[in-house]
Amino acid sequence: MTLRDRWRAWRNGLIGDPGFQRWAARFPLTRPVARRRAQALFDLSAGFVYSQIAQACVLSGLLARLAKGPARIADLASVIDLAPEATLRLVRAAVALKLAEPAGLDRYGLGVEGAALLGAPGVTAMIEHHALLYADLADPLALLRRGGGGGVLAGYWPYAEGETPDPAAAAAYSGLMSASQAMVAAQVLDAYDVSRHRRLLDVGGGQGTFLRAVAARGPRLDLSLFDLPPVAARARDAFTAEGLTVAATGGSFFADPLPRGADLVSLIRILHDHDDGPALDILRAVRAAMAPGATLLIGEPFAAERGAERVGDAYFGLYLLAMGSGRPRPTREVIALCRTAGFSTARRVSTAMPMIAGLIVARA
Fold first, then answer.
1. Is the pLDDT of residue 148 over 70?
2. What is the pLDDT of residue 335?
3. Each residue's pLDDT tens digit, 187-228
4. For residues 56 and 194, what is the distance between their CA atoms, to the nearest angstrom?
């Protein structure tokens, strides 16, 4: 046993001792720490309840109504279609989570966390979508034992288990990806100046949210997108309707060659959706389409990111398992995959919010 192992055993024995816990809760210098630890432990056990409260606040329209201004319980009850007693219970729960806040006698307004949530449409879209994930997580050990996939969430993402999505399935998951992609795009574009390039190819670009974000920032790049045929068709229609000149090519990056000629290629939330072998195949396909000196941007949440550890191995670790494909990777593993795929250099670039997305820049 190493010195660190012995220290860890001593620490855990002390923290787990009921007598020490009672002493720490009474002693003035340790009382704040004891309270924080107790709260953190309770939050860990009650997290599912909190997330379900947030889902109820979103799906019922409670937060959207509070965003229009404070209201009384009777008025809120008529909007969200609950009895006044049930409405009051939900509102009080929302207040406890800072999604709502008191605004006078029997009046409630939008809270600071509620305002932040409504300001991030991708988060509300994921909250609405979480019912599928929670169905698979009702028995997490069963999910782990079967090795992932095969459940409700995998049916929502047919490509994760090798199926070709029909237009309806493509529309469903592409819409969710589009809603949550804007936050990721902002992190990538704030961290890397794309204006130094002339042509950008977004591989697995979905409905084109990343390319719209690029276009909105004004650089004069030729923009193009590659995704599965039904997804590319939706992107093409959307670009045409918005008056954007973007080439959208349909195909599979496992079976079809990628369009050539781009000096900048992006993989936005693509690699972590795939297991190691397919992820390496994607990188090799991208490298084959790139001329020497071209640049690849890999933007997605990474595992083991300081301050964002829960997003990587906890949230996406289980989400991708339920989906049936992929895993969150530390940046060092993605960099190693890039080098194996033939990229001459690959480096991590800091982003403002790594819990939303980190960035790796690789050169052909």
1. yes
2. 98
3. 999 999 999 999 999 999 999 999 999 999 877 899 999 999
4. 40
- Mind listing the pLDDT tens digit for each residue in 79-107? 999 999 999 999 999 999 999 999 999 99
- Token reading at 291: 């001329």
Total domain count, the chain: 2
166 and 101 together in one domain: no
Of the residues 84, 118, 152, the one at which a domain ends: 118
State the distance between the two ends of the chain, measured CA to CA, in whole angstroms: 45
Q: Which residues contact 241 (CB under 8 A, 6 or more apart)?
A: none
Structural tokens at position 16: 């787990």
Name the token pair of 35.
């309270």
Calpha distance 8→308 (Å, rounded): 23
Integer Cα distance of 358 and 332 in angstroms = 12
Q: Which of 198, 218, 206 is nearest to 291 (CA)?
A: 198
243 is a domain residue = yes
83 with 131, same domain: the answer is no
